[in-house]
Amino acid sequence: MPIRFKINDVAVEAKPGEGLLDVARRNGFSIPSLCHLESVPAIGACRICLVEVRRGRRSKLTTSCNYEVLDGIEVSTDSPEIRRHRAMNLELLLARAPSSEAIRKLAAQYGVSQPRFGPIKYNPLPNCILCELCVRACTELGHHALTTVGRGDRKRIGLPFNKPADTCVGCGACASVCPTHCIPMTDTLTKRAIWGQKHDFVRCSECGAPVITKKHRDHAIATKGLPEDYYDVCQSCKQIATSQRFAAIVW
Ligand code: SF4
Ligand code: SF4
Ligand code: FES
């Protein structure tokens, strides 16, 4: 049975267990977010995706990414109250990540240019907002190479026991999902440096471009049952080869 409810007075349907933010976006409603990806479990860390949910006579502000939809709720995605809370949360995030382009841009949309607090004294990974999206993505991919370390105002993102993790395959997913782009990752033609390790790249046998790190290739082939030569050629060269085969057939 689908769940039926309203967003901004528009009737929508969802599957039981779906998160409100995902359903809202699927139906064309725009809600800002920093720490959510559809394929990664939501934890409601950044508090930017706040919405108002009314259920009967009760109403509350809640993060939409980790709110499971319910029959009959009425959701507002924008109101002066919602904007005021988002602005306050952005002020806090800006104090943690003063030079993050993404945070500055979003904060400006809510009239915040300079936080009243901060700067945060302890932030060994500058601009990290502790949203844990990197940790959740790494875990979801089965690598478990990142974690949160410390507590309270000493909390940070790091490697278990502060040592380069054996399970890190250098896939770069943590760096690419990070909303503030604060995880240092350097690629050359032959190597990727990330989290204190250097990973050799597999290079395309056709054009020489880096395809994937060797450790990531080995992990992917072992866990997804792919053919051994799956990553020998990069995507662009594979596409060229496919279109050439197609052209030869058509010809
Ligand atoms: S690069 Fe390492 S730490 Fe980052 S997501 Fe991949 S396995 Fe995890
Ligand atoms: S490194 Fe990026 S993704 Fe990870 S917690 Fe910090 S801001 Fe979030
Ligand atoms: S996107 Fe919902 S709390 Fe960050």
How would you sum up this structure, described in words?
By secondary structure, this protein is of the alpha+beta class. The chain has two domains: 3-78, Ubiquitin-like (UB roll) (Roll), CATH 3.10.20; 133-246, no CATH class. 29% of the residues lie in helices and 20% in strands. The protein is built from seven helices and eleven strands. It has helices spanning 20-26, 80-96, 101-109, 133-140, 173-177, 214-224, 235-250; strands spanning 3-7, 10-14, 50-55, 58-63, 74-76, 147-149, 156-158, 185-187, 191-194, 197-203, 210-213. Strands 2-1-5-3-4 form a five-stranded mixed β-sheet, with helices on both faces. The chain has a four-stranded antiparallel β-sheet with strand order 8-9-10-11. Strands 6-7 form a two-stranded antiparallel ribbon. A hairpin with a 3-residue loop joins strand 8 (185-187) and strand 9. Helix 2 runs antiparallel to helix 3. The longest helix has 17 residues, at 80-96. The protein is globular and about 65 Å long. The structure holds iron/sulfur cluster (SF4) (2 copies) and FE2/S2 (inorganic) cluster. Residues 137-138, 143, 145-146, 168-174, 194-195 line the site of one iron/sulfur cluster.
Q: pLDDT under 50 segments (min length 5)?
A: none
> Structural class per helix/strand content?
alpha+beta
Order of helices and strands: EEHEEEHHHEEHEEEEHH
Unique bound compounds: iron/sulfur cluster, FE2/S2 (inorganic) cluster
Q: How many angstroms separate the termini?
A: 52 Å
Strand order of the largest sheet: 2-1-5-3-4
Oligomeric state of the chains? single chain
What share of residues is helical? Answer: 25-40%
Radius of gyration, taken over Cα atoms and rounded to an integer in Å: 22 Å
SS element count, helices: 7
Average pLDDT level: 94
Number of strands: 11
